[in-house]
Sequence to fold (934 residues):
Amino acid sequence: MGRMSGPVLELLLPVDRAANEPLHAQIERGLREAIRDGRLAVGAPVPSSRALAAELGVARSVVVDAYAQLCAEGYLRARGGSRTTVATTAATRAAPRSTTAGGAPTVAYDFHPGLPDLAAFPARAWASSLQRALRRAPHAALGYPDPRGIPCLREVLAGYLARARGTLAEPDGLLVCAGIVQGLSLVCQALRARGARRVAVEDPCWIFHRALPIHAGLEPVPVPVDQDGIRVAELDGIAADAVIVTPAHQFPTGAALAPHRRAALLEWAARNDVLVIEDDYDAEYRYDRDPVGALQGLASERVLYAGSASKILAPGLRLGWLLVPDALADAVATEKIHADLGSDVPGQLALADFIETGELDRHLRRTRRSYRSRRDALIEALHTHLPDAQIQGIAAGLHALAVLPSDTDEAALIANAATRGVSVHGLSWHRANPPTGPPGLILGYANLPESTMEHGIRELALARGQS
Amino acid sequence: MGRMSGPVLELLLPVDRAANEPLHAQIERGLREAIRDGRLAVGAPVPSSRALAAELGVARSVVVDAYAQLCAEGYLRARGGSRTTVATTAATRAAPRSTTAGGAPTVAYDFHPGLPDLAAFPARAWASSLQRALRRAPHAALGYPDPRGIPCLREVLAGYLARARGTLAEPDGLLVCAGIVQGLSLVCQALRARGARRVAVEDPCWIFHRALPIHAGLEPVPVPVDQDGIRVAELDGIAADAVIVTPAHQFPTGAALAPHRRAALLEWAARNDVLVIEDDYDAEYRYDRDPVGALQGLASERVLYAGSASKILAPGLRLGWLLVPDALADAVATEKIHADLGSDVPGQLALADFIETGELDRHLRRTRRSYRSRRDALIEALHTHLPDAQIQGIAAGLHALAVLPSDTDEAALIANAATRGVSVHGLSWHRANPPTGPPGLILGYANLPESTMEHGIRELALARGQS
Fold:
């Protein structure tokens, strides 16, 4: 570079006097990029500050500043009286990674079972809640939060859960987390840290019920589910330290844990000193009667309750909550501290206001009505187009299970459906041992407009005809 | 209860016909509470639905509904023709835990080193950014987010970091996380999962630089820091798999990593194939010149960069970011999925808008000015009241280090200061081996009004007189 002519230097270091960026910063940026691109070779001398200043038509001090900065950053090396050179530590730029192109087929009918009606998310009310809550909160609220959650949200949530889910919730036992995934992850880590080894899980179940224990160093042990929920009698002999269940609406079968099983599960857990982890992911939605109250309300020192805003509002909020038995409360809070120091304050403030002002109840009333209509439209469409499907789990939640005749090729059906723009989950995806049990489809209906439900199911039936 | 008289029942089940809550729900709630309180004993029969309906003056179907609900929830047990009883699984309520009373002495002068000016948080602009971004975002944005962060924020952040910190940031290599704690936690877990055992850390350092590796099953190995930053020569022989450093402004000494050390560190890391983890927690604030560019910009495949909004905006946002070398990108993203599936979307949307609209730059300009004034006020107050303190690390960041004469009893000074309403961190708290090195105080100045700085330091001097 020391011997470069003016035009080359200008190409390398285009200095724009009209720009907002100071001249020395422009020169620094230009040199950094030239070094990274390899246009300035490692070890090569750079021009003297006097020469470069003259070439660029800037004050020499500007170039001196830029060189000093780049020396401090390690791009250049200045050694006493000799020429400043490009430092050997300066790397050349890696080839830019290609951005992932959206080459997947278009999804016209997405029956993903985990999504509420995203178009119904009350964005304006949510933003108002945030604005109001931020205005009211003391400045200190935006410092490092209480790792268990901000007190006002824990207070409001404890009240909401007691009222809506029949839990025994004291604000002290509540821990705010980033959705049920973080909640279960913290619990698994806390259990592992105190020596736990095995966690019984439902079979079939949500894949994270197996994945999170494994990730935490625990062994998930599948226990079969039937139309009454988890088969409690089969828990004996597993030597599990905990069991993860979905009593209100089993995922994915949709079964409610029968009263005799609820009693038997708690008796078994007490007898064997096992922690029951209740994943209450979608229990607010029950269409034939009031939601069945949480198991936690029966045995708050035996049952750890996990819930979230993902189904009642939106998964993107990443807001969840745990009700933790006293004996585990400190251990789970310690995991939360090491995970992220606490959940984000604006989201917590907004949720507290959103519940307190009755917005959540309003939203739940509205969506309960619309989800029931969507569910009915789904059932009708299934009766019409897939009459041999056996429909289960429709009393509650945001999805139904369509069990198909045993000769159905589930994988082929799902693949054919995808080519027709229908995205649907297979029942076998959620089984610990895929070949066992009948084939089926998990059909989330909450995020599909009623008007498109029939078209989607018709396409699914056509896909089946292809299989 | 079968033999309770009307008034007792009314006390137990006060039914309010004017309330919004349906009658059956009121009865359910009353019974649940009575069972939990032990007012209704386990195993005891409840009145027939006919008798209770007559007592309460409600339709029998209301009581039948309530009993059915409580049976489903496991509070009651109905067996064929015989009387419904309180189920044996129904627990009695645990004594409410006492809420933590605020008995700590009042803090009038909080020199906590981790806090920016919380009163300056631009709450209104932040809420506007959220509102605008929520309005513009497609509905689907509020579904499950990209675990690495929403694309628009990664794009905006990559640009900001390249411009403000001289990083080599492609949006693809960026991962949004819940503050630097989550970022480092994910990295430690990813390293541990691939067999790493030891992480070199600065001594003294931020306590989480030692705590997070330990929590992930790694051994932190302290390496001394002097006025030029970490002593790179002492890294040899440790057999570290990674090293965590704070090159721009060492925490807590405030030293900038000297150019020769930056070069030596990268050379050492390349020679030994060690990952350099750059914690760039407060580098946006530099008062004598432009901030020293990030080490990551010199060696993006060797250096993992961690930054956050905690110092430039507020820790309560819990927003941070990592620039992850290609070789580790998938492993860290996998940890993020198991940690929480991804960061909250509203916060990400708000931050992207906040940067794009220039609000962050405006905020940084404003706070740089005010922090410099606060820093100057602190230095002046120290000169006046603690003239033998040796002040270090004032060129950048949000805190200074006051090294005290070696005969100072640091612990006694801090305890006495607390009784005078002055909260301050000791240098020894951050050392791996507390007895080594001189005593000192870490003085965060960003969250203290200029006008109170002198009073706070005078109280500190008086506390020292007591020691």
Q: What stands out?
A: Chain B touches chain A through 95 residues (CB under 8 Å). The mean pLDDT of chain B is 89.
